[in-house]
Amino acid sequence: MGGMDTGSARSATQKAHNTADRAGDHPALTTLARGGFIVLGILHIIIGWIAVQIARGSSSEEASNSGALETIAQAPGGQIALWAAVLALAALALWRLTQLFTGEDAKAKAKGGVMTVVYLSLAVTTATFAAGGTTSDGETATDVTARVLAQPWGAVLVIIGGLVVLGVGLYSVARGVTRSFKKDLEAGAGSGEVGSAIIAAGTVGYIARGIAFAVLGVLIVWAGWANDPEEAGGLDAALRALGEQPAGSVLLLVVGAGVALYGVYSLARARYVKM
What we know:
Layout: H1 2-24, H2 27-55, H3 65-73, H4 78-102, H5 106-130, H6 137-149, H7 154-178, H8 192-226, H9 235-243, H10 248-272
Helix pairs in contact: 1-4, 2-3, 2-4, 2-10, 3-4, 3-5, 4-5, 6-7, 7-8, 8-9, 8-10, 9-10
C-alpha cells in the first residue's frame, strides 16, 4: 500500500509539473508576462524621477509604487493603461506561480512563490488606482506594522520582517555587484553595445534598488525596536531618510537615478528574459 501511495504521489507531482510547464510556456501567457516587466520598468522610472525631484526639493509626491500609479492615473487615458497593467501584472504573477512546480531547485521554487505574492499584490494596488481609488504604500506599511505590533511577540515579528527586507536589499546589491542577474537573460543579450548598456543599467539599478530596500529594512527594524509603527513607512520613507543624511541630496539623486536605470533594465528584460 505504501508503495502504491508513493507511486500515486509521484504521478500526481509529475502531472502538476507537466501542466505548469505547459502553462508557463504558453505564448499568450509569456507575451502578457513580458508586458508585466514593461509595467515594472515604467513604475521604477517614475519612482526614480520622483526621487530625483525630491532631492532637488521640487516634489511632494510619494516615491513609491503608489506615487507612480497615481502619476499614471492622472495622465490622459491613464486609467485604461492601468487596467492593461493589471492584466500584465496578473500574467506575470501566474508565470511566476508556475515556477513553484517547474523550478529546478528549492531556491527557484521559493523565489517563484515570493514573486507571485509580490506581483499579485502590485496588481491589486494597480486595480485600485485603475478603478479611481487611491492608496499609499507608506500608510499601508504603517497600518500593517501597527497590527503586527499589537500581537503577542509583535515587536519581534516586525524586527524579523525588517531583517528580511534588509536581506532582500543586500541581496539586490550583491546581484548588481556580481552581475549575477545576467543568468536571467537569454544567451547573447549582454553582447554588443546595446547588450553592454543593458548590463550597465542592470548593475547600477540593482545596487540602487538594493540600497533603498536596505534602508527600508532598517526603518522597519527600528519600528519594531521602538514599538512605533510610524517609523516603518515604505519606500518613500526610505528614500527620504537617505535624503536627510549628510550630503543626502546628492545620495538621493544618485539612488533615484539608479532606480530609474533599474526601470530601463526592466524594459529590456521584457525582451530578453528567459521564459
